[in-house]
Amino acid sequence: MSILNQQISANITNNKLTHQIVIVGGGAAGITVAAQLLKKDRNLDLAIIEPSEKHYYQPAWTLVGGGQYQIENAVKDEQDCIPNGAKWIKAYVEKFDPDHNLVITRDRQEIKYNYLIVCPGIQIDWHLIQGLKEAIGKDGVTSNYSKDYAPYTWESINKFSGGNAIFTYPVTPIKCGGAAQKIMYMTDETLRKRGVRNKSNIIFCTPGAKMFGVPEYSESLDKVIKEKNIEVKFKHNLKAIKPETKEAIFTVNTGTEIEEISIKYDLLHVTPPMSAPEFIKNSKLAVQNGSMQGWVDVNQYTLQHNLYANVFSLGDVAGLPTSKTAAAIRKQAPVVVKNILSLIQSRQVNEEYNGYTCCPLITGYGKVIMAEFNYENKPISSFLLNPTKPRYSMWLVKRYALPWLYWNRMLKGEPFEPDILRELF
Ligand SMILES: Cc1cc2nc3c(=O)[nH]c(=O)nc-3n(C[C@H](O)[C@H](O)[C@H](O)COP(=O)(O)OP(=O)(O)OC[C@H]3O[C@@H](n4cnc5c(N)ncnc54)[C@H](O)[C@@H]3O)c2cc1C
């Protein structure tokens, strides 16, 4: 037995709620990693702690907002997603005690583990924009970042009869960095079809200084913006909404000072600020300072915790310098699986994640830039095509292939590489 395993065994008593592997969060990451582990070894004693009865395919929410997908088709019962052989503990985790290999739930269950996988996703900080909670869901204020409002986005686009349509991006890391823009391009096209584009200003407000983090994709988006006659306001951070006067209040970084300005809106799509969930931020598992503060403190290659060797993290909550997407999880899950199995077998942890992520940038109906990249921040392509171009084939992948692959391959722990689609396109 390795020193690590001896330490773990010494810490574990004969408590009923003891599992060899405990996964916190049964979303995209938790289910994928559980299914892959059990495919490798049916005898693993594995529990998933997940409070929600429902499992959402969030990448479809953008399509719901754009009128291309029904919200009820983007959800399944969590029970049907839990892989055979895994135990579902329906509870909220509230605390971690990694020095004693212990997870504590809101209903006071204490669950011990030999190995812990932390993947409860990201927290949406709606409250950080003053007035948003009160304003959202009516009078043209909406967000695809909630299943409750994505259908209202489509309703609002169709009701819009002219004026300012504003799309915002926050100052924090978010899941799917492109989602704030995708809906804007679909809105542009819908307004053109409805004959009201000439009476409307489409405005993108972002605290950043470019359209996307990878320069090559950013250049492609600059062309899209120009073609569509969209106004971009860089260095603009949404701070408050005044629904009574239909004003969006931004702080603007001029380089020398921070100004506050107001822009009238008729349609306002908000991408809210996000952060690690509070119970992660307040735990010993979080990075304590620096740019990754609050996210789970893992090695960016092995996904193993930097202080607690029997803890791993993946998905949106992991402190990794790459874009947070379900596509990233596809490449992270096999790394976590191999490294945990290595630890169990007292072997070295040496499988590495390269930062792969992918954001299918919808630039119109029937057009997607499949923006794949990794830690090097350079475009790469699973499809052996120039990835910086909008393509109809990639729209078909986003609209039809990826949802099917998510439910039927990824969540089942089956190998799922988009390059298997190469032959089709
Ligand atoms: C509008 C939108 C568009 C997107 N578009 C794309 C796209 O085109 N391509 C792409 O790849 N990705 C996209 N994404 C991102 C993708 O959905 C996420 O990156 C992915 O779902 C993250 O998986 P996760 O398991 O880390 O988190 P989630 O899937 O959010 O799952 C987290 C789970 O943890 C559970 N949980 C939370 N708190 C606790 C707790 N205290 N205790 C126990 N469990 C807890 C939650 O209930 C949830 O089930 C999009 C997301 C949105 C919202």
UniProtKB/TrEMBL annotation:
Residue ranges of domain FAD/NAD(P)-binding in the record: 20-135
Matches recorded under SUPFAM superfamilies: FAD/NAD(P)-binding domain (SSF51905)
Any one of the GO BP annotations: sulfide oxidation, using sulfide:quinone oxidoreductase
GO MF annotations in UniProt: FAD binding; quinone binding; sulfide:quinone oxidoreductase activity
Pfam families in UniProt: Pyr_redox_2
Cofactor: FAD
Top-level taxon of the source organism: Bacteria
Gene3D superfamilies assigned to the protein according to its UniProt record, in alphabetical order: FAD/NAD(P)-binding domain
Keyword list, A-Z: FAD, Flavoprotein, Oxidoreductase, Quinone, Transit peptide
Protein's UniProt name: NAD(P)/FAD-dependent oxidoreductase
Originating organism: Gomphosphaeria aponina SAG 52.96 = DSM 107014
